Amino acid sequence: MAALGLCFAMGLGGGMAVTMSTEPDASAAVVAGVVEDNLGAEAGAAVRNAYEAARSGNRTSPPTPAGPAHAGTGADAVSGSGVGAADAEELAAPSASALPSPPAAARGPAVTKSAPPSPGPSAAPSPRSTPGPTPERGSGLLGTKVTVEQELSGRLLVARGSSPAPADGKVWRVQVAVEKGLPVDRRVFAEAVLATLNDPRGWNGADGSTFARTDSENYDARVVLASPGTTDQLCLPLDTIGELSCGIEETAVLNFKRWATGSRAWENIRAYRQYLVNHEVGHVIGYHHDVCAGEGEHATIMVQQTTTTSGCIPEPWPAPHAE
């Protein structure tokens, strides 16, 4: 019963608060008396207390939230709260610096942004490679000043390339090789050898031999340019004493010392080189030494003409009058 009376008193108190601006005291007394007559003195006292509270204007403001508002922003954040402008400013979200940092697990793995790499020094342009010496046509020698080493590696490097025999006749397949370490362009040397062998004044004009070039091991004759020491080894059992060349079995061995410096018996070193090729290959294809026919006569190609011509006129060709 007391609870029912209290509810009734609170309802009347609300109505009394609306009318108290015109006749506050009379209204309060009437209401309190009616309540007390019907519900008892306790209920009447409750009405009077409500009246006094309304009259004094004591209202309790809602507590200020500890954290930032999450329900909305602006007008929606304060609607229906009964707070004024000052209270609304207190509800404004704190600045980012005032917010507590979320726990590391919520933040996720830290991402470190690397600064863009600073441009390094521009690469210096690569210097142009210095071109090597131009090989001499007709010999393949490299450089104007050639040093003759007495002994080198002994390793022979085959000149790569092949070409067919240019004429009809007995075909000899020729492989050309140069000892590693010699200052010689192998390709140019090989071209010089085959040009000499297939010259019309060469062996084709003398006996119909013609020469094809090959770089395989399936050859009929081989022309090797070697240091003096290697020449001596390749020419055994012949004794070339570091000065001479030889033709033995299927190999014509040309002594590099002679190829590079020539012979005192010859004024023209190019003609001497042609003699050297034709003479030593002549041994490989079956010819033996000849002797000078007499003072002032032309030597034949198989006369030894390196240290001396024995009074004969030097001759580099097997068939000097062929065309």
Labels describing this entry:
alpha/beta; 11 helices; disordered N terminus; 34% helix; six-stranded mixed sheet; 323 residues
What's the short story on this structure?
The chain is of the alpha/beta class and 323 residues long. Helix content is 34%, strand content 10%.
Describe the model.
This protein is an alpha/beta fold and 323 residues long. Helices cover 34% and strands 10% of the residues. It is rod-shaped, with a radius of gyration of 61 Å.
Euclidean distance between termini CA atoms: 153 Å
* Secondary-structure element string: HHHHHHEEHHEEHEEHH
* Count of individual helical segments: 11
How much helical structure, as a percent, in the residues?
A: 25-40%
Low-confidence stretches: 2-26, 58-114
C-alpha geometry:
rod-shaped
Average pLDDT level? 76
**Number of E strands:** 6
Beta-strand portion reads 5-15%
- Provide the gyration radius in Å: 61 Å
For the largest beta-sheet, the strand count, sense and barrel status come to: 6 strands, mixed
Structural class determined from secondary elements: alpha/beta
What secondary-structure arrangement, pairings included, does this model have?
Blueprint: H1 2-19, H2 24-39, H3 41-56, H4 75-78, H5 85-90, H6 104-107, E1 156-158, E2 170-179, H7 186-197, H8 203-207, E3 209-213, E4 221-226, H9 228-235, E5 246-248, E6 251-255, H10 256-261, H11 269-284
Parallel strand pairs: 2-3, 2-4, 4-6
Antiparallel strand pairs: 1-2, 5-6
Helix pairs in contact: 1-2, 1-3, 2-3
